From TrEMBL:
Identification of the protein by name: ATP-binding cassette domain-containing protein
Organismal lineage: Bacteria, Bacillati, Actinomycetota, Actinomycetes, Streptosporangiales
Domain ABC transporter intervals: 694-940
Compartments where found: Cell membrane
Listed GO MF terms: ATP binding; ATP hydrolysis activity; L-isoleucine transmembrane transporter activity; L-phenylalanine transmembrane transporter activity; L-valine transmembrane transporter activity
Species assigned in the record: Actinomadura soli
PROSITE patterns: ABC_TRANSPORTER_2
Length: 954
């Protein structure tokens, strides 16, 4: 019979020896912060090395040594990231594989060190690079979460294999480089030869890379691609060859850093695997593009961490500072410069599949099938009950993260911190302040809410990978800096006491408390999904620009969802701590790496909410039944391989269409239709100043040296369709982006109904009456057509008001449904109301986007190439629709369109742009007769002269 987590905790009397009792522990219990590595700069600055302890010089020297290795590792990371788009969280896993190979060859089999070095770095490194290139090519088209999860899978596989082969004990490796044991003095600082050699080898490697960049054709192409990945797509650059070369070099660098560092920190799969996370900050300093700057960043990070070591000496509250410095730098630099790092959103090639929802009664039966066994678990499992309780708490944690990741499309890699804060706050409120148990649980969870709001700040500024890195840095920062403080987990080895409630003293009773909490959380998550907030979150995940253009302040939505998610994660942390009787900073559940594992679990879990939380939580129960010493490693390998495979496939297969159809046929048919009676489209307000519509004055848009728009002024009055035409690249979309608030880097003014909106956000302009469609159609593919269209009205209603974003009053609820129904009817989409937008044809998508604008009741509409992708019949119908809507509602339209027949038919007045300049304006007839316009469209000497003129000006 396995020892239960709690009994083991009591037996050891140490919370730090976290039992491998939950799924997250199983996979993460060896992933607590590798403090010994994080603090190894201090090892480098041995007391014997330091001539004068007050002097910073020894710390700087020591920092340079470690910094060059960070720089080496980060250089490889940046190279592969920029050429393939994959940020390799498993970069350290490559280093680990090489370090173990070197050890096996040199130490175990007695191969001479130069030969072992060549085999493990120059043979294995490139070999791994070739495999990684193939892997990265499969991951490249997948959404960001899968890109991250795939490389986390690598980490788990390498860790699992390393532990199975070499065990968990750190193996000391003798320094193999010449000069070991000898030292020399520089400016009074004693430096050992081996450390100097490490720095020299790392610097020489980066210098060799630099020379390769300068002298070889591949290097030149790679450098160009690192500077601008878009160049890969250009003719003449063999993308695969460049990527392959980048992965070979990046993996070789990783292998070298692993072999160099192994003698300093020992062979330990965890320390080595996560060594590279310290290099993330260097990559950020190098702006993910500049390799020399990345090396400098590595050295800066190394020195800062080492110098922090000096100040932390003897100061207990700063003890975590040195190890936190790389993450502090990572977090702060991302916060400050994050916006400049984020490139324009690149749509993934894979459209997210909409989660299938079976008919209500099928779901009810499935729920009962799951719930009934859970209710009888205490009767059946005996001593293993605590494994099940831990599994339920893990499921709760997954639900809280799922709200962020699955529903709202955010990423959090610091979720364990919320759990830890909740647990600590609960213990203090309950034991120190004497609050009743339940009150302490709720208030304790509330304490995590402001921290959630704090983490939402990077979420407002960043997205995708950069948000993942910022939250990861934040999590490790808090863990290093705050967990050791006595006011957090106390100075006792067992941590904070977490008492059971008086009404559930026994484990069986407490199991039901956790089950009830999970049930309530699942209900909350389901209700949120179906509420206005759920639509907003999913809309934001599918198309942040789309919902902003309808008036939703997504910053507020992001803060809201982080707060709710932090609250639920804190509840999970409290329940887990109570289950174990103690909460300790060394518990893997509260560790930052657990956040990585949770994200991977979520990405792999099949089914829609709330069911996705249950299957991964079963992993928590496995160690209760398989008690062998290798269980954790095998689980690591199985989970890691699944993560790799599922990520490459872009998610789990959804339910086959045939099965869906069969289940759907079983749905009960309700009598009558629940569809609302559509209201007529409201007429826009035209009184007073509102008749002015949109006015653009002296607009200038620059992209670096390129002048995209120059001194453009135009009017788009109410009740009229005004055209903005011009050849490709003339600056039309740039003008729209400025008008609607998506491009803020410009000169000139934008006026709406006479008032200057130049400084206002996109959402605020939408709430002022300016709506738009997009050239690329910004719908949320996982929402139905009705839900998408409804957001056109709801987004503006909710705006920046957090309460209005969460709930809608009955009147607002009804109005939005009626508006959506009217807009759907107007656009002929009523029959598609329940279809996910992802399943629509191009023509239907354009119509749905227009319907969303109509539901919003905007005064002025910017329509960006609405006929692109439509056939002639669809185009004609679309034209009729726009004309009739303008007549009926009095809306003003500014239309970008390449179909000249449509433009001539719809527009009363036209502005013609070419190379960013207004070359003509007038009625359609005047434009058609203009030789200047003809020249611009057909190409002529006049057009060539304009290019030269534009180039001279910029
Ligand atoms: N984010 C950007 N960064 C750099 N250059 C840009 C950016 N967006 C647009 N450009 C450039 O600005 C110029 C104007 O582009 P814009 O998309 O506004 O033209 P357009 O008239 O809408 O073209 P199209 O009809 O092809 O959509 C083009 O040369 C384009 O390459």
């Amino acid at each position: 019979m396995p020892a239960s987590p709690r009994s083991r905790l009591r037996a050891t009397g140490s919370g730090a020896s976290s039992p491998a009792s939950s799924a997250t522990e199983t996979w993460a219990n060896r992933c607590a912060i590798p403090r010994s590595f994080a603090r190894w700069p201090s090892d480098a600055a041995q007391p014997g090395d330091i001539v004068n302890a007050a002097d910073l010089l020894p710390f700087i020297v020591s920092g340079i040594v470690v910094g060059t290795v960070y720089g080496l590792a980060a250089g490889g990371l940046v190279l592969t990231y920029k050429t393939s788009g994959i940020f390799n969280f498993g970069h350290g896993a490559l280093a680990t594989a090489a370090a173990y190979a070197f050890y096996s060859l040199h130490v175990v089999h007695g191969v001479a060190w130069p030969v072992a070095l060549i085999l493990s770095v120059l043979v294995l490194g490139p070999g791994l690079g070739l495999l990684m290139e193939r892997f990265a090519a499969k991951l490249a088209p997948q959404p960001t979460t899968f890109k991250i999860v795939g490389t986390i899978g690598l980490v788990l596989v390498v860790q699992g294999v390393a532990v199975l082969t070499y065990g968990t004990t750190t193996i000391r490796v003798k320094q193999f480089l010449p000069g070991a044991g000898r030292s020399f003095a520089v400016l009074g600082v004693v430096v050992s030869y081996d450390k100097a050699m490490i720095a020299a080898v790392a610097l020489a490697s980066v210098a060799a890379l630099w020379a390769f960049f300068r002298r070889s054709r591949t290097g030149l192409a790679m450098r160009a691609v690192v500077d601008d990945p878009a160049l890969l797509a250009m003719r003449g650059t063999d993308a695969v060859r460049v990527r392959r070369a980048a992965w070979i070099i990046g993996s070789t660098f990783a292998a070298l850093s692993g072999v160099l560092i192994a003698p300093l920190i020992g062979l330990d799969s965890i320390l080595l695997t996560f060594m590279v996370v310290q290099a993330f900050a260097a990559a950020v300093i190098g702006r993910f593009s500049n390799i020399p700057l990345t090396l400098v960043g590595g050295i800066v990070v190394g020195i800062a961490a080492s110098v922090a070591e000096k100040y932390a000496l003897g100061t207990s509250w700063l003890s975590g500072l040195p190890a936190s410095v790389p993450f502090l730098i990572l977090f702060v630099v991302l916060l400050i410069r994050g916006r400049t790092l984020v490139s324009p959103r690149v749509r993934t090639h894979v459209r997210p599949s909409s989660p299938y929802r079976a008919p209500g009664w099928v779901r009810a039966i499935a729920g009962a099938v799951v719930l009934v066994p859970l209710l009888v678990v205490p009767e059946l499992v005996g001593d293993r009950l605590s494994f099940f309780t831990t599994g339920l708490a893990t499921a709760l944690m997954l639900l809280s993260l799922g709200l962020l990741v699955r529903t709202s499309g955010q990423v959090s890699l610091c979720h364990s911190v919320f759990a830890a804060i909740g647990a600590v706050a609960f213990s203090q409120l309950h034991l120190d302040l004497g609050l009743p148990w339940l009150v302490a649980v709720l208030l304790g969870a509330l304490v995590a809410v402001p921290i959630g709001a704090l983490v939402a700040i990077p979420a407002i500024r960043l997205s995708g990978l950069f948000l993942a890195l910022a939250t990861f840095g934040f999590g490790i920062l808090v863990q290093q800096l705050l967990y050791p403080q006595t006011w957090m987990f106390t100075s006792f080895a067992q941590g904070r006491e977490m008492p059971h409630p008086s009404f559930a003293e026994e484990p069986e009773q407490f199991y039901y408390v956790v089950l009830a909490a999970l049930f309530l959380t699942a209900l909350t998550v389901v209700l949120i999904e179906r509420s206005r907030l759920g639509r907003m979150l999913r809309g934001m995940a599918g198309s942040p620009e789309g919902v902003s253009a309808m008036g939703l302040s997504t910053s507020v939505t992001r803060v809201t969802v982080f707060c709710v998610s932090a609250f639920l994660a804190a509840i999970a942390g409290i329940l887990l701590g109570v289950e174990r009787n103690f909460a300790t900073g060394g518990d893997a559940f509260f560790g930052s790496y657990n956040s990585l594992i949770l994200l991977a679990m979520l990405a792999l879990a099949p089914f829609a909410e709330p069911w996705y939380a249950l299957l991964p939580a079963i992993g928590a129960v496995v160690p209760g039944y398989f008690t062998g010493a290798d269980t954790t490693s095998w689980l690591n390998i199985i989970f890691g391989v699944s993560a790799v495979l599922v990520s490459m496939a872009g998610g789990n297969p959804t339910m086959p269409t045939r099965w869906r159809a069969r289940l759907d046929r079983l749905a009960w048919r309700r009598g009558g239709s629940s569809r609302p009676a559509p209201a007529a489209l409201p007429r826009v307000r035209e009184e007073g100043d509102r008749a002015a519509g949109l006015e653009v004055r002296e607009l200038t848009v620059r992209y670096g040296g390129l002048m995209a728009v120059h001194g453009l002024s135009l009017d788009a009055p109410m009740g009229k369709i005004t055209g903005l035409i011009g050849p490709n690249g003339a600056g039309k979309t740039s003008t729209f982006d400025v008008c609607s608030g998506f491009n803020r880097r410009h000169g000139g003014r934008v006026l709406l109904h006479g008032s200057d909106v130049t400084g206002r956000s996109a959402a605020a302009r939408a709430r002022n009456g300016l709506g738009r469609t997009f050239q690329s159609v910004e719908l949320c593919d996982t929402l139905t057509v009705l839900e998408n269209v409804r957001l056109g009205h709801e987004a503006g209603q909710a705006g920046a008001n957090p309460l209005a974003q969460i709930v809608a009053g009955p009147v607002a609820w009804r109005t939005s449904r009626q508006r959506a129904a009217a807009a759907l009817e107007r656009c002929g989409l009523t029959h598609l109301a329940g279809t996910p937008a992802g399943e629509l044809s191009t023509g239907q998508r354009r119509l749905a986007e227009l319907a969303r604008c109509l539901a919003g009741g905007f005064d002025v509409l910017l329509l960006d190439e609405p006929s692109a992708g439509l056939d002639p019949d669809e185009t004609a119908r679309f034209g009729d629709l726009v004309l009739s809507v303008v007549q009926e509602t009095g809306v003003g339209v500014l239309l970008i369109e390449h179909d000249m027949a449509l433009v001539m038919r719809l527009c009363g007045y036209l502005y013609v742009l070419d190379f960013g300049e207004l070359i003509f304006e007038g009625t359609p007839a005047a434009v058609a007769a203009s030789p200047v316009v003809q020249a611009a469209y057909l190409g002529s000497d006049v057009a060539v002269e304009r290019v030269d003129e534009n180039t001279r000006r910029s």
